[in-house]
Amino acid sequence: MSLVIDDAHIDIVKEYVKSQFENLDSIVLRYVKAMNSVIDTGIMEGATAEALKEFLNQVELKAGSNSADLGLIASHVDRCCINFVVEVDKADKELY
Known about the structure:
Strand content: under 5%
Shape: rod-shaped
Structural class: mainly alpha
Radius of gyration: 22 Å
Distance between the termini: 15 Å
Largest sheet: none
Oligomer: single chain
Order of helices and strands: HH
Number of strands: 0
């Protein structure tokens, strides 16, 4: 029985995961922009308007911190994939 590690596939998966994190960040930023437009252009008064503004404020705060978090996660995935391939190659050289 043999174990085959496809380095190219690991790279493809790594790039896919990184791009999905970038897409997620972009989607959140577009959502914030759209909601700001609703608040800026709509005639809004009262408790519902104030609640919407506060909700958007919280989304903006979280989106800013999530952007950094998403970047850290993407970097971690990148390092894990690279380290995995390096460790498998190292173990393979020890065997053969």
